[in-house]
Amino acid sequence: MKRILVLGGAHETEATMAGLETAGHSVRTYASRLPVGAARSDSLRAELAWAEGVVDVTHAFDVALGQMAHRMRPDLPSLRLARPLWHPEPGDKWHMVSDLAEGIATLPPAACVFAATGRDSVEMLAHHDGPVYVRQLQHHTRTAPPNCTFVFGSGPFDVEEEVSLFNDLNIEVVMARNTGGAPGFPKVAAARALDLPVILIAPQGRTDQMHVTRVAEVLDWVATL
Fold this sequence. Notes:
Helices cover 28% and strands 21% of the residues. By secondary structure, the chain is an alpha/beta fold. The protein folds into 2 domains: 3-82 and 204-222, 3-Layer(aba) Sandwich (Rossmann fold), CATH 3.40.50.720; 94-201, 3-Layer(aba) Sandwich (Rossmann fold), CATH 3.40.50. The strands form 2 sheets. The chain has a 6-stranded parallel sheet, with helices on both faces. Strands 2-1-3-4-11 form a 5-stranded parallel sheet, with helices on both faces. Strand 9 (173-177), helix 7 (186-193) and strand 10 form a beta-alpha-beta unit.
């Protein structure tokens, strides 16, 4: 049995915890958002001192927690579990960029944009010279910049609904974060169906860390500790 700290936040957090516990390991979790019923420690440093290994299952674009844990315990073995990223098929009009700023610079002038780029991206999207419809997964009362309109919806989304939405809004370009996996793909599939260009922002993260895509691979790694 190993003591494993799971840095949670992505959809795979619960399955990772369940898999580790079923395999007989002692599991604790630290995250801003946890599955219902999971306990959250108030001290990351204390949890890292307890752990024999760390499994990072944070959101693909939430790298701060994993980086903080590595700074606190650089000697602690760690593994990143993440969904396989999306890859283009022949005929796709995809443009891969490294960050939001490059994505905005890549937008055609005055294009009508649908942006699924995170809740904190609105200020930068305001620099685009055309209309931007910004997906928001949680309702709020914040005021959007003059060129931006919030589009609220909590999902899950399906391709037909996304196609209808893009047609209703006269979308010309879709910009999204490449989070990988099935849950976020309908907007990209809708863009493909409508033959729209897609600008995909690559996730950032540690390059010195082993990456896997399945819970079974996490269990194999833990068995080597």
